UniProtKB/TrEMBL annotation:
Keywords: Ion transport, Membrane, Transmembrane, Transmembrane helix, Transport
Localization in the cell: Membrane
Species name: Rhizobium vallis
GO molecular function: zinc ion transmembrane transporter activity
NCBIfam families: CDF, CDF_efflux_DmeF
Keyword Zinc (UniProt): no
One GO cellular component, as annotated: membrane
All copies of domain Cation efflux protein transmembrane, residue ranges: 31-255
Protein name, entry field: Cation transporter
Membrane topology annotation: Multi-pass membrane protein
Length: 330
């Protein structure tokens, strides 16, 4: 009869792969609130525009619908990532779903920017009469909604650089033995591209409203009707630039690119390498907001248990999943 592995020992070694950001639940709730706010405003504008025959109101209502759609992508990504967090088919968890949603939102943002610039260019070559007072009122209401949405999304969180993360777990193994440690909470430097995407959509809409208010006010005072489409082109270029930035950051995470200025690989080498121990292969990648995984191959003239090397890395709080492989130097 074979002596099986002790169940208690197995349970102690097993671990989950939940790499969601620390503010995942809060961000999800706030995005749903912003979607509700945007949808109510969108329906009100389209209805009022249809009743009162205002194309400005109708156009702004449909414009808000594109942002509401993009926000829905962010909200559904949070929902799916949370519900599937313990699904073993996601071998490194669902932490990257936010980056996938962020990348999709970046493409939508780019399309909105192109449409804005194209529509503005057409208006520049074929001017149309503008109802200044009504258009300014619409822009002011839109700005108020967007500022309220931006406040909701940014409240208490660091949108520019993302959320800190927790659920830290390390897993190390050698040739014949393994070690697992439930670590401290992990506080990472990498951002949550999903909440950043939602925030950029709201800010892009707010920028559009600010530029419209400025152009329409000056247009009504001095008769500069050409200023409105010019501001539309400027806004389109600014939003396109934001979109490109979001595309690069979220796409980089999806392709496991080490971010420019990321110090974690160097910190791992500094923590592990000595005269006896050398790292021959190192892979570091982001598995969720503030969570990184690493595979470290060590060649040592005096090899120790993997737990020893894991201990050297315990101060690096961004590491949520670590695999250590040890080879005896010939």
């Amino acid at each position: 009869m074979n002596a099986g592995i002790d169940k208690a020992a197995m349970n102690a070694l097993e671990h989950d792969h939940v790499f969601l950001g620390a503010d995942h639940a809060r961000n999800e709730r706030r995005i749903w609130l912003v979607i509700l706010l945007t949808a109510v405003m969108m329906v009100a504008e389209i209805a009022a525009g249809t009743i009162y025959g205002s194309m400005a109101l109708v156009a702004d209502g449909w414009h808000m619908s594109t942002h509401a759609s993009a926000l829905l992508i962010s909200a559904l990504a949070y929902l799916f990532a949370r519900r599937q967090a313990h699904n073993p088919r996601f071998t490194f968890g669902t932490g990257k779903l936010g980056d996938l949603a962020g990348f999709a939102s970046a493409i939508i943002l780019a399309l909105i920017a192109l449409l804005m610039a194209w529509e503005s260019a057409l208006r520049l070559s074929n001017p149309v009469p503008i109802g200044f007072a009504q258009a300014i009122a619409v822009a002011v209401i839109g700005l108020a909604v967007n500022l309220a949405s931006a406040w909701l999304l940014a409240g208490g969180g660091n949108v520019a650089h993302g959320d800190h993360a927790h659920y830290g777990h390390d897993h190390s193994h050698g040739h014949h033995h393994g070690h697992h440690h439930h670590g401290h909470d992990r506080h990472g430097k990498a951002g949550d591209n999903n909440i950043r995407a939602a925030y950029l959509h709201v800010i892009a809409d707010a920028l559009t409203s600010v530029l419209a208010i400025a152009a329409l006010t000056l247009g009504s005072l001095y008769g500069w009707s050409w200023l409105d489409p010019v501001m539309g082109i400027v806004g389109g270029l600014v939003i396109a630039n934001w979109s490109w930035s979001l595309m690069k950051s979220s796409g980089g995470v999806l392709l496991d690119v080490v971010r420019e200025g990321e110090t974690l690989p160097r910190e791992i080498r500094d923590a592990i390498e000595t005269e006896e121990d050398r790292i021959t292969d190192l892979h570091v990648w982001q598995v969720g907001p503030g969570h990184h995984a690493a595979i470290v191959a060590v060649v040592s003239s005096k090899p120790r248990d993997p737990a020893f090397y894991k201990g050297r890395l315990s101060a690096l709080e961004e590491l949520s999943h670590v695999t250590v492989e040890i080879t005896h130097a010939a």
